[in-house]
Fold:
Amino acid sequence: MHRRLLLPMVAISALAFFFGWFIATGRWSELFANENNSFTSEQSDGKQLPKPDPAFQGKIGETYKDSTPSFPLPLKAPKGAPNVLLILLDDVGFGMCSTFGGPVPTPAMEKLANNGLKYTRFHTTALCSPTRAALLAGRNHHSCGTGVIIEMGTGYPGYTGILPKSTALVSQVLRDNGYATGMFGKWHNTPEPDISPAGPFDRWPTGLGFDYFYGFNQGETHQYYPTIYRNTTWVPQPKSPEQGYHFSIDMTDEAIGWIRNVRAADPDKPWFNYFSTSGVHAPHHAPKEWRDKFVGKFDYGWDKQRELIHAKQLEMGIIPKGTLLTPRHKSIPSWEEQPADAKKVYTRLMENYAAYMAFTDFQVGRLLDSLEASGELENTLVMYIVGDNGASAEGGLEGTFSEIASLMGIQLGLPSLIKKLDEIGGPLSEPHVPVGWAWAMNAPFKWTKQVASHFGGTRNPMVVSWQKGIKAKGETRTQFHHVIDVVPTILEACKIPEPKFVNGIEQKPIEGVSMVYTFEDAQAKGHRTTQYFELATNRAIYHNGWVACSQYGLPWETAGRGEGFVNAPWELYNIEEDFSQAKDLAAAMPEKLKELKDQFLVEIKKYNVLPLDPRFSERMDPSMRAAGPPKTSWTYFGNNVWLPEPIGPQLFPRPHSLTAELTIPKGGAEGVIACVGGQSCGWSLYIKGGKPVFHYSFFEIADITITGSDAIPEGKIVLKTEFTPEGSKELGGTMKMFVNGKMTAESKIKRSTFRHGLEPFEIGRDSITPVSPDYKSPFPFTGTIDKVTFALTK
Structure:
């Protein structure tokens, strides 16, 4: 029988058997007993997500003529539920933006504040990933397994770097209650080993409740040459810096386009947009026309700048009358003791930093203006959080032309900055301000990012606006709140219950408290009475208007902090009377200090904070997160491999070999065989001019090109390199190159490192910026790469 006839006949026979069985067993009546048959459970009350399928509301008769269909209705958000726009800036100090008394004009933020509320006692965790996890989950960062950034997970419950499935994010809660959900910009909450084409993808944004993601997955990216993902796939940037490209513009365009497309498809569906800007995390990149706006604006230096901010904050009522300006710590140099050349460099770095902040606020303004123009803004709950932590001191005491070098513990020094002064903020730079400017931007508080013990690290302002839902305009709110309070605020405003089960998994209770009670009542008594803070043993406890805290280590010294935290002194502040933590009462009130320290122990045991661990960059060792013994060899096939560097072969500074089995076509081949990194730091093996070439660059410290003496033959060949460390503290060594077993080059590499910046490991091309100045990206290999094997050697 013809196959096209056979399939329908089988289906008919099966249907006949089904009905025949009911008739033969006397159960025909059961099939039609209920005119409103329900094949699924009744609608959920919202405590279980996803919601079960709706009950069938039609009627089933013997035939379609006496039956009534009823399509399942689409999932709908509560009637009148607002859109939610959650804006998060990065590494912005309390005293940076003009909205809160700072020197950098932020007109979009000010306009929003004039139509909403300013929160001056809002707090974060003092670091990127922890704040972001707590923000979206509504639980403390250790409860979310994110006690430090995800690259530093140590395997304890509070430090896995893996968001537990028992702490569902607000994105999933809103999506499963009828919202469209989109995320744009910086994520930094996916375990580093999962950021690969193999996934798993359940802890990417699209696996955690976001319908759409456009941004970068790790802690930072180059603004002119970013590593961008659309959903779970790497995509190249749409145009070059010469054509006006900057990631902040790009992500804003994408966010505006996404909202417009959601509304075009459904005029009534509310949306949740998590707009997580790169600004102003290093590298600090601002277009030249924005940098030019700030020339000469900071010539008086960081000490005077703090005084000016403090005075403006008092004048505006941002801080209470009588609030003291905390003094400069002895570890931070004064402005006056800096030489003239240094002042010139530091001023230029600050001008660029300020320009980046102003430029970022401008992009936020574009997004808000688009909502106003389309009529969406009126019923949009906007929460504009001014930083995921305080301003960053990770640029070191002198600042840097390359913040990646600084994070590796390498200070390139003033000569490097002086030589490249006019490039600061442009595509060839990766700059970061010196500690003094970061400290200034946190006025009136002590300390900076990473220091969770003091408000310089944890107090970030916030603006909330909801034209349709908040009557109060242009007012200030002073209740003590924390980033974990954002989720319950959103849920209450949207009239959506906290789920108890998500995907069948029982949820940890949300640990935040809603701030909706503050919307119309400036004098309402604060609902948050206790909050702990901890990051790399910098720790504090807020309880009923008091703060006890202990600071340990310097945030610009990221390694070798030792175990002295055990005996680090504690401080005590009555922050109801001392807004800036300027009057330490520990010696005068030992019993009160003991009470708070005891409360701190209660809180950290409750929220997975133990064990306390002072290590910072030491936790970057990938072996801490490896399952089983560490890999010693890696094999790849073909001309099209693209992986984040931590997922690729871990070679330098260890002894290793690279063996490439190639097919060279008639007439020869050229292009990149394998590479990692980009224009400031990386390595590349390629063929050019018929000869093999290996290039290694390490910022300005090492820049070596090794060219083979013999031409590459046609046909099947084996190209091999071998690196032998010399055992020096600079991690240098000898590189040899072989073609078909014959050595064709040998040279020294002065300095190497285990990480090479922000760009990926690739085989067959160099996609973003060229590792070697000898070629232009992507410089694809024109032969065939049969196999490439990397192996660690003894």
